[in-house]
Amino acid sequence: MKNIRNFCIIAHIDHGKSTLADRLLELTGTLTERQTQDQVLDDMDLERERGITIKSHAIQMEYRFEGENYKLNLIDTPGHVDFSYEVSRSIAACEGALLIIDATQGIQAQTISNLYLALEHDLEIIPIMNKMDMDNAMPEDVEEQIIDLIGCKPEEIIRASGKTGMGVDLILEAIIKRVPAPSGDPEAPLQALIFDSVYNSFRGIIAYFRIFNGQIRKGELVKFFATGKEYNADEVGVLKLVQQPRDVLSAGDVGYIISGIKASREVKVGDTITHVKNPCEKAIEGFTNVKPMVYAGIYPIDADDYEELRASMERLQLNDASLVFEPESSAALGFGFRCGFLGLLHMEIIQERLDREFDMDVITTVPNVSYKAYTTKGEMIEVHNPSGLPAPNYLDFIEEPYITAQIISKSEYVGAVMTLCIGKRGMLKNQIYLTSDRIELTVELPLGEIVFDFYDKLKSISKGYASFDYHITGYKQAKLVRLDILLNSEPVDALSTLIHQDNAYDFGRRMCSKLRELIPRQQFDIAIQAAIGAKVIARETVKAVRKDVTAKCYGGDITRKRKLLEKQKKGKKRMRQVGNVEVPQTAFLAVLKLD
Q1: What count of Cα atoms within 13 Å lies in the side-chain half-sphere of residue 424?
Q2: Domain architecture of the chain: domains with CATH
């Protein structure tokens, strides 16, 4: 065990952690030249295109240092705030962390939140200043920020570049010298932490784990603590670029287990594996079920694809256990699913993966968060969908989730950032100057307000400098109302939203005028109304028109008319019939883009 080192890489998005991981793999000879490609640990096309890590990855490297062979287990982590639970489990499986900070940008919000996670688990932190080869690097300024943040000595900070490979040998030396070897008793009952799982269509679910105590052998009967299910360990092994089976893994090792599990619900990240015959007394602390934060409806564009969409979602859930969904139906869109996501990026990625991997055309409704509605009888109902809100005469009050956000920005943008937060019903809790021109704001905001476009606006008013990180703090009572959109006095449930009373009138008026532009004119007048209960608060009218596409075909072959009619029919397929008014898909999406 004294020659094993388990470490992870933590950083803000786009500070170069996947590139640096590539250099570590090259220097330790884990990759051959044929296998080399950029961001080798990011195996999804989507990850490569966007340059982000979505799934955390683990890989074992072997390195010879001062005459001894060392086993280095690298656990790569996603950087985005939506995946912070995965990051926390990866951190729990390690003894050390490489804290990577971009020398051109300095410390950002997620760097700090991930650092605090690592410090909570008493990890040895190795600070690394990356991108030192860039012309606009500011090593002196960033060095000061790092020393202020973690109180290390200047000589402890490693200057490196993932692109050129500078300083990578120093990083490996620091991992071996500074990161403690794992402690644990190989003779004790088995206790292993699951930090990730992947789905393989031939072998079922493969769980990645780190052993804290005991040993696991091929063929042994093991059980998972949180679910209580028992399995045979058909295969255990270590993670190189490909999985390499081993007969036995012992305390301190990081590896994988294949036991023919078919349902993703049975493997939970953060769960503990132990033996059935000689179980450990308690599970490893820190396990929680992942809780979705943002809810949206996903409906197939063609109603006949409903079963296919269900199958696609189930297969996607095998790969991404944090996706939660249940069937629901809507008068406007037919049958579909109410899905829970970790955040907006997660939602976007799921949509993109449905399109790419399963070729599904879907409509997504307005995302919203879950509210707690209390009835006059004192019952509490969780509301994920505005249409599930009890009638006003039964409703006592509503509570909505609140978050505490940390925003780090240049001090010249602080006024604009505060204005944005106050416009979103935020309350400023604290502000700290990290350096003379960088400020950290702590703001309390309702989660429902940041779901739409908060992040985009924050980036644009701060010219891309501000970084944002948040965690949920609890629920507070709020004056919320349900705003319905009516077309020819028929409510369109897919466009209903729960909104704060003070913003309802303005939002309703903007929705109506936006829909007036987007709804194609019919052969009759269409009244578009925004209403709270029975009270209409805004109205627009789409004037009537008549269009005959076959008018230019006088005489001639019937197929010419057919061709024009078919073309027209194709255009209509993208639309949804709502009563007797067609609402184009753009209208559902435009609600998100209301500026």
Answers
A1: 27
A2: 4-178 (3.40.50.300), 191-275 (2.40.30.10), 294-365 (3.30.70.870), 372-478 (3.30.70.240), 481-593 (3.30.70.2570)
* Beta bridge partner(s), residue 200: 204
Q: In 40-173, which ranges are E strands?
A: 57-65, 68-76, 96-102, 124-130, 158-159
3-state secondary structure 187-255: CCCCEEEEEEEEEECCCEEEEEEEEEECEEECCCEEEECCCCCEEECCEEEEECCCEEEECEEECCCEE
pTM of the model as a whole:
0.70
**CB-based contacts of 253, cutoff 8 Å, min separation 6:** 4, 73, 210, 211, 238
Pairing of strands 68-76, 497-500: unpaired
Q: Tokens for 455, please give them.
A: 């992040």
User: 3-class SS at 117?
Assistant: helix
Question: Tokens at residue 571, please?
Answer: 């255009």
Q: Which residue has the higher pLDDT, 279 or 84?
A: 279
Q: Which of 387, 595, 389, 574 is nearest to 492 (CA)?
A: 387
First to last CA, the chain: 57
Q: Report the length, in residues, of the chain.
A: 595
Amino acid, res. 464: G
Across the chain, mean pLDDT equals 80
Sign of the torsion angle spanned by Cα atoms 155, 161, 167, 172: positive
Report d(CA 25, CA 19) in Å as an integer.
Answer: 10
**Unique residue bearing structure tokens 């990051």:** 87
Facing residues of 140 across strands? none
**Strand 4-11 to 96-102 pairing:** parallel
Strands 467-478 and 395-410: antiparallel
Tell me which DSSP letter residue 368 carries: B
How far is 352 from 344, CA to CA, in rounded Å?
Answer: 12
CA distance 323 to 342: 8
Closest Cα partner for 95 from 193, 186, 14?
193
Residue from 318, 203, 312, 208 nearest 263 by CA: 318
Specify the higher pLDDT residue, 382 or 12: 382
Surface-to-core class of residue 380, CB atoms within 10 Å of its CB (0-12 exposed, 13-18 middle, 19+ buried): exposed
Q: What percent of the chain has pLDDT over 90?
A: 2
Please write the tens of the pLDDT for every residue from 296-329. Answer: 888 888 778 889 998 888 878 776 767 888 888 8
531-583 confidence digits (pLDDT tens)? 988 889 999 888 766 567 777 777 778 888 888 888 777 765 554 445 466 66
| Tokens 């990240």 sit on residue | 269
